[in-house]
Amino acid sequence: MPRTRRELAGHGLVFTRALSPDPLCCPARAEIITGQLGQNNGVSSNLGLHGGFAALRQKQNTLAVWLRRVGYRTALVGKYLNGYHGQGGRQHGWTRWNPSVGDIYSYTHTEFYRDGSPRTVHRNVTPVVAHFAQQYVRDLSATGKPFFIWASFLPPHQRRTHPGGAELPPLPTRRHRHVLEHVRAPFLSKPTFGTTQGLQPEPWRTQPSVSSTAMQALFTRRIQSLQDVDAAVARLIATLRHVHQLRHTYVFFASDNGVLLGEHRLRGKDVLFQEALRVPLVVRVPGAHRGRSSRLPVTLADLAPTILALAGATPGRRQDGRSFAGVLHGRRVPWRDTQLIQTGRHASPGDRAAWALRGVWTTRYTYFRRVADGTSFLYDRRVDPFEATDVALDPRYHRTLAALRHRTDVLVHCAGASCNRRFGPVPPPRPR
Questions:
Q1: Cα dihedral angle (61, 66, 69, 75), rounded to 10 degrees?
Q2: Res. 204 pLDDT band, cuts 50 70 90
Q3: For residue 382, what is the domain's CATH number?
Q4: What's the CA gap between 186 and 302, in Å, rounded?
Q5: Predicted TM-score (pTM) of this structure
Q6: Rounded CA gap, 412 and 368, in Å?
Q7: Is pLDDT of 203 > 60?
Q8: Looking at residue 201, what is its pLDDT?
Q9: Which residues 6+ apart lie within 8 Å of 163 measured at CB?
């Protein structure tokens, strides 16, 4: 995405260790609009008792409401929370409310809410979202008030032509349908591709086999579809420049989760391996004329506190995340050394458990346990960067495992400042 790199990363900060603490669509988006983790905002999955739009607590107490209180005009276009199909109408705080509400994953024939006058658009959804976002930049900037716009693009999510249908590769526009065909998928070279070792963390089950040809073809379609997003970013920046707002505007670029495409013989997200947890996060900073990078492990739950700090607004909920606004301007900010990570269950009325996997991430270790039976998984990324070997049963890691279990026990109940503790160094493994 060269234009995104040039226009955003070249004028701001790239966070190379950004994380999605609950790497799935709806939990991640709920974190963005609340600044809270799933145990506090109510969303731990896409479906079931604790999943989707219906599970979000205090639906009318979100980031848009807090920004409106300090004079912002706000707009959303594109995908919102899973399960929102226009019921309940416009959500509080949004000046322009235009989520996709029908055929959300089709890439074509997508229905948009359009402030209560729904319309189905038959073009590729990516330039449509870009068109609406550009219009909102022009309209809201003309009011003379500060503005906040969330443009939610679908790529590189897989395509589904009807609810419950088979997942297909994403659909790029014709302009980009034959570019980048020579790029080899980097994950094909990972030692974990198509292989597995030991127990696998449910709810995902390993594939009987993984086709490198099929995964290469899917990867190609994914990066082709992202060229449409790259073009949309460039058009948004050009529009901001045209209305003389670029030098006043912070631009955040992020994803709600990562994905596995055959690593550990898994395909998808909602697991706690690095491929699912790690997300891109880039912030264009007004007045910055060069790019920098930060290894600070910020998360999606930190976006709302950061945006609020930049806007001078006050949250209406206790924030589990914390602001990294100071980092954007070159200041050092004290930061937690342990991040709670978790995945939810598609719980039914007869199975009310909210969580499937819960654990912690540190700059060296990934630890999690399966809630159903307590089975632990531990990966030492310093010596095993691809998380190929589970060392939870290795006697040398006994003290390491105990410390990370304790941190998990503390953080699964955290709220507000208690989610941002510094525990100190993790005991290393004993020498061989």
A1: -90
A2: low
A3: 3.30.1120.10
A4: 29
A5: 0.96
A6: 11
A7: no
A8: 67
A9: none
